[in-house]
Design brief:
This protein has 260 residues and is mainly beta. 2% of the residues lie in helices and 66% in strands. The protein contains one helix and 16 strands. It has a 16-stranded antiparallel sheet that branches. The termini are far apart.
Length: 260
């Protein structure tokens, strides 16, 4: 008769990462700087068949640091790990990752992103971001995409947001003597490798509604409504169906221009 073993689920206590011994810490990514973890898991094993580990890993106040970027969140991993079916093959992995109460800091040209939460799925081949959202520039940003293959990661993301233009004045380089108002909608697709360094090609499609740029140093630009496309690598902006008033006079603007 084949021997079998199906232990009862094991639940660990909340364990601070900085209390782990060197042998266990070696399995933790160096970028994972602090937080506590708790494991609820069941190991199923029967002679002649691959073992299966099922369970949940709960991380509280985890901090991931890769200077200058710092990400903090509560994270739950819920799924299974199955032993390789043949020598030399990789274990089978299928894990749902849930993030809550997150904060992202240190991203160049971005303010601190708060209220980060989302759902992703991790397999040996890819990390699929089913949905992710967070708040920056006093607006909600929504993101989905995929990172694959994991051994040489490249990313493809779709990012969307509706925002008030006044909140991005500094980010787009306007000084305090400029007043920016109106509403905007952005939808960006970013693709590119993450290693050996991130090199992303982002194409952004945007809309502005009733936008105004006012400064004592120039004629006011008001009532701007229309669409634009922005190519990050080419540093080119294409204007479509843009109507505006310049110094009170109506204008229709279209065309392309590049900037350095």
């Amino acid at each position: 008769r084949n021997a079998s073993q199906t232990p009862s689920p094991r639940t660990s206590t909340d364990t601070p990462l900085d209390s782990l011994g060197a042998a266990l810490r070696a399995y933790v990514p160096a970028q994972l700087a602090s937080g506590t973890v708790r494991l609820d898991a069941t190991l199923d094993w029967q002679a002649g068949t691959p073992w299966q580990l099922r369970g949940q890993l709960v991380g509280t106040q985890l901090v991931w640091q890769e200077p200058p970027v710092r990400l903090g969140a509560d994270v739950t991993l819920d799924g299974q790990l199955i032993a390789p079916h043949s020598p030399g093959s990789a274990p089978l992995l299928d894990v749902a990752i849930t993030a809550r109460r997150g904060t992202l800091e240190g991203v160049p040209k971005l303010p601190t992103v708060t209220e980060v939460e989302g759902l992703a799925r991790l397999t040996p081949q890819q990390l699929e971001i089913k949905w992710l959202r967070g708040r920056a520039f006093d607006a909600l940003w929504r993101l989905e995409g995929v990172i694959e293959p994991l051994e040489a990661p490249a990313i493809e993301l779709l990012i969307k947001s509706d925002l008030e233009l006044a909140n991005v004045r500094e980010a787009i380089g306007l000084g305090e003597d400029w007043q920016l108002s109106g509403a905007g909608r952005l939808e960006a697709v970013c693709r590119g490798p993450l290693r050996p360094r991130a090199l992303l090609d982002c194409l952004t499609r945007g809309e502005v509604r009733d936008a105004s740029i006012v400064s004592a140093a120039a004629a006011p630009l008001t009532d701007a409504t229309g669409r634009f496309d922005y190519d990050l690598l080419a540093r080119r902006i294409d204007l479509h169906e843009l109507t505006v008033r310049l110094g009170g006079q109506p204008l229709a603007v279209h065309g392309s221009f590049a900037h350095t």
